Amino acid sequence: MKFFVDTADTDEIRDLAETGLVDGVTTNPSLVAKSGRDFVEVVKEICTIVDGPVSAEVTATEAGAMVDEGKKLAQIASNVTIKVPLTWDGLKACKALTQGGTMVNVTLCFSANQALLAAKAGATFISPFIGRLDDIGEDGVQLIRDIRTIYDNYDALSTQILSASIRSDEHVKQVAIAGSDVATVPPDVLRGLSQHPLTDKGLAAFLADWEKTGQTIL
Ligand code: E4P
């Protein structure tokens, strides 16, 4: 499973990218607003840090205007992926942009049928928001399982499942088990995946025993 990082904070992206674990980045208008930076400038900078897909979301709601915005954003760098919402107009824009050779991430997906439509419209990625489904008492991970099953039923559907709205390490594990192609995760969740109390305890014991030997490696 690939990891995308879900943030517009370039310091965070730079730090996380040093691990080699960051396969791409997703942003949305809320994350750009949180960064307090100019949208185009921040996307441009992210694309200098990460080689993989960098999602930049249109804000128009009518298909033609979405396509125009998408074409403009796609000029920022070759790895920009245009994010469009899963609306009827968004599906039209998805079709037009992917036919023109631009990667498209269809976002705000909350049902398997929406994911089926996005795939048929040629989406490069579908972003089901699992945390927001959990928030309303539904099972977000079950949506990933359902989409995986549907996509695997049809060879013609090549859209990658990009699990989004991930809130915990348990979410990451469950979407990986479900066969998600990508998980986009907030920086703190990605860092948290490396942690285990027994790792900390074991390391402390090893270092204490090493100290007793009086040796150094360098
Ligand atoms: C994904 O592309 C979205 O930006 C993100 O995962 C939404 O997460 P949230 O529901 O925690 O805002």
Radius of gyration: 20 Å
pLDDT < 50 stretches = none
Number of domains: 1
At the fold tier of CATH, the topology name is TIM Barrel
Distance between the amino and carboxyl termini:
37 Å
- Give the strand line-up of the largest sheet: 1-2-3-4-5-6-7-8
Which sheet architecture does the biggest sheet show? 8 strands, parallel, barrel
The geometry reads as: globular
Number of distinct beta strands:
8
Judging by the overall fold, what is the CATH architecture? Alpha-Beta Barrel
CATH class: Alpha Beta
Task: Sketch the topology as an H/E string, one letter per element.
Answer: EHEHHEHEHEHEHHEHEHH
Question: Could you please describe the fold and organization of this structure?
Answer:
By secondary structure, the protein is of the alpha/beta class. The two termini are 37 Å apart. The longest helix is centred in the C-terminal third of the chain and has 17 residues, at 197-213. The mean pLDDT is 98. The protein has a single domain (2-213), classed as Aldolase class I (TIM Barrel). Strand 3 (54-57), helix 4 and strand 4 (80-85) form a beta-alpha-beta unit. The chain has an 8-stranded parallel barrel with strand order 1-2-3-4-5-6-7-8, surrounded by 6 helices. Helix content is 51%, strand content 17%. The protein binds erythose-4-phosphate (E4P). Erythose-4-phosphate (E4P) binds next to helix 7. Residues 6, 26, 28, 107, 127, 129, 131-132, 164-165, 184 line the site of erythose-4-phosphate.
